[in-house]
């Protein structure tokens, strides 16, 4: 099985390869099926990528979808289709026009997802926007400066807390206050701080500091911090 490597300005047709590596300004016209995909320069793929492992360290534009066992984005990527990845880590920036599906999504940089995100484990310490539903068994959000937005959140365990870092605390005055905004947050065990939401619904709900919630619906337990603002709460 051949390798495909573009080191300067160049283009190639798609196909099946062992390894694909874009180090310069390269364009691939067609679908790519490979074991490894690397984009270290500025790459464009006018087709779908199917691979075991992909890593984007430079700038990539994918005009279709990505299907990978593991995908890591350290640079910046624009994906016009869906992402299906067992493990997806975004340490740089990713703009995704489609759905995200997989086992684990880790956000340490910035991500924008235009549709739904469905994973088993969701972990975020960076900024993110999800225009659709975020659905995961475990959701762990540690807020930095800035605002993250999700239309709806559904999960078994949902936690949203400020990131504990001495460096970030020192730099905090330079950034806007960390905040999570959602229309609906629904789960079994919910613990929120610095969150604005219309409806929060769960078995056990803990509303911490700097929250502004219009309606709380709970089955078993409800706790509210003194600094939290809750419009109404009811046991269901």
Automatic annotation (TrEMBL):
It holds the Pfam family Bactofilin. InterPro entries: BacA/B. It comes from the Bacteria. Belongs to the bactofilin family. This is Polymer-forming cytoskeletal protein. The lineage of its organism: Bacteria, Bacillati, Bacillota, Bacilli, Bacillales.
């Amino acid at each position: 099985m051949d390798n495909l490597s573009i080191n300067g300005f160049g283009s190639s047709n798609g196909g099946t390869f062992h390894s694909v590596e874009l180090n310069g300004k390269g364009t691939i016209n067609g679908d790519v099926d490979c074991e490894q995909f690397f984009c270290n320069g500025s790459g464009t793929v006018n087709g779908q990528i199917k691979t075991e492992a992909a890593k984007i360290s430079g700038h990539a534009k994918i005009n279709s979808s990505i299907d990978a066992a593991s995908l890591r984005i350290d640079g910046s990527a624009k994906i016009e289709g869906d992402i299906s990845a067992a493990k997806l880590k975004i340490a740089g920036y990713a703009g995704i026009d489609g759905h995200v599906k997989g086992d684990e999504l880790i956000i340490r940089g910035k991500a924008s997802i235009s549709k739904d995100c469905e994973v088993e484990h969701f972990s975020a310490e960076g900024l993110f926007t999800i225009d659709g539903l975020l659905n995961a068994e475990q959701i762990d959000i540690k807020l930095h400066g800035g605002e993250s937005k999700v239309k709806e959140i559904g999960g078994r365990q949902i936690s949203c807390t400020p990131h504990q870092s001495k460096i970030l605390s020192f730099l905090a005055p330079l950034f806007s206050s960390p905040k999570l905004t959602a229309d609906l947050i629904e789960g079994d065990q919910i613990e929120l701080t610095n969150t604005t939401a219309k409806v929060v619904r769960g078995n056990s709900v803990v509303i911490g500091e700097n929250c502004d919630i219009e309606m709380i619906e709970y089955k078993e337990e409800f706790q509210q911090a003194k600094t939290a603002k809750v419009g109404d709460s009811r046991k269901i």
